[in-house]
């Protein structure tokens, strides 16, 4: 947890709603160094305007605003505008009333003032990391799909079978017959593939019908 | 010694006994004197009556008899002998004389024997009491004499009748001898009668002596009783007067002692009151501190809130240095700008502290100040609490007034009332309002503080200014706030504070019910 790669924040836009202008500017000054854009506003009206125009990835909002309430603002954008943007609430109040409302709204985090910048940044990182990961996964599956399109698709299916049937200890317990029942592949081709994997130390036989998948070997290639 | 004992006994008797004894003696003596005098007068009268009726009258009768014998009988016979009158004439005279004699004699006997005028019962008792004896032994003698006279008179009358008959038959010779005998008889009857008279006179004298005796005895008794009553009255009066004097002196002493006791009590009370006053002053001071502490709690919330914002900004500035440093972007301009901001923020924080410090400082000097400033300052101090409850505060300044007094204390009072209104408005859902009006009213500065919190319970209104009276839960109030407010306004500023429930146009549209606190402060000159 200690050292997160905060560089991942670089490509995101943050909407920051806070009525204390001094705090707003100073916080914006810090966030500016880490994220793509900080839209700093001090009323919910301005915030709605920003939401209309810009692509916002995370909302940071104070609960007690001048003559309004951050929670009400969140409710309105979730219910009326059907926007489900991850949100961090900040407040000087530790009232359980606000806490319960926050839980009901499924806000991502609840930061008690005075704001610890590290905590804020970490929270932002934690919120944005899944988004980046999803994007990465999408990318990788696209790569695999592309590879399988240009090479022997049977071999790719066997690899998929092997990885899909690994147990908790990265071991595959299966006979050639089992694999051939699922995938229509000739036995010699299958044996050749297993031999190739064994040579590259990716899949080593440790017992009868038992193979160990070695993840580290992938890094060498 | 005995007399002394009696005196001391009397002295020791309760006063009421002594007086009743005195009254008893005097009335008893009076009654006995009156009774005795009445009795003696009655007895004397009785004795005189007896003397007259029983002794004097019979003697007159006896004398009459004697005279009748002498004049009617004797003289008539003599006239007949001298032939001065006729027999017919003498017959009438003699029969008349005989009738007179018979009547008188009968009267006498009746008076003496039938004894109508007996001695009275009272006289008898008196005589018995004083042992005075009567001579009753001579009654036999009297009876004998009366019997003799009876016989003589009967014989005499027979002879007279015989003489009259003889004279009618003109037998003068026989008549004359008989007449001579009658003379003799008359004389003897007269002697008997004289005897009887003497006897009666003797009796009268004896009775007079007895009366004298009774009179002197009664007089002695009377005198003695008068003297006795007099002496006794004097002695008792002296005792009673002595008692009065004693009582008087005793009372004087008692009054002196009581006066002294009262003086001591007074001194003690004076000391005690002084102590109590000092105590109550001490208590007031403690309560003042309590109320200040109570508002201190609220003030701390205010301070905390007013500090939290700049503190948050300051922390952000400090952290910005760190992040900039880590990123290697820390520039001179950035530091310059952030330091300026930080100084401004900390200056604000310092000012906030000064404000509250002023409010809590025991600033005891009276100053000239504008009520408007004081109220605005108080509102500013309680701003956070009001805003937290979503209360709108409307300050209406009709007259901008300047008074001379304790700025902080008035501020304290206004804060307290605002705080109370805030508590009353807590229950209200929306449109929570407090209105403060400053105006001149009858040469006094008047501050009206309205709210629309539904008013104070009418049963509670008389008690709201009493110490330790609170309708809030123990944690919420100490119950000294309004008491201290009253003390401040009335004792320190010589003003008046009161509260009531009124309808008021809070937002100039709707009439709303709520509490009204009125503070009147006189314009005191420096």
Helical proportion of chain B, percent range:
over 70%
Number of strands of chain B: 7
**Could you say what the CATH topology of the domain at 365-526 in chain B is called?**
Heat Shock Protein 90
Query: In sequence order, what are the helices and strands of chain B, one letter per element?
Result: HHHHHHHEHHEEHEEHEE
CATH 2nd-level architecture of the largest domain in chain A: 3-Layer(aba) Sandwich
| Distance between the first and last residues' Cα of chain B | 87 Å
Overall tally of structural domains of chain A: 2
Structure description:
The complex is a heterodimer of chains A (221) and B (526). Helix content of chain A is 51%, strand content 18%. Chain A has 221 residues and is α/β, with parallel strands linked by helices. Chain A folds into 2 domains: 131 residues, Rossmann fold (3-Layer(aba) Sandwich), CATH 3.40.50.2300; 70 residues, Arc Repressor Mutant, subunit A. In chain A, the strands form 3 sheets. Chain A has a 5-stranded parallel beta sheet, sandwiched between helices. In chain A, strands 8-10-9 form a 3-stranded antiparallel beta sheet. In chain A, a hairpin with a 2-residue loop joins β9 and β10. The longest helix of chain A has 34 residues. Chain A starts with 12 loop residues before the first strand and ends with a helix. With 526 residues, chain B is an alpha+beta fold. Chain B has a 5-stranded mixed beta sheet. The radius of gyration of chain B is 66 Å and the shape is rod-shaped. At the A-B interface, α1 of A face α6 and α7 of B.
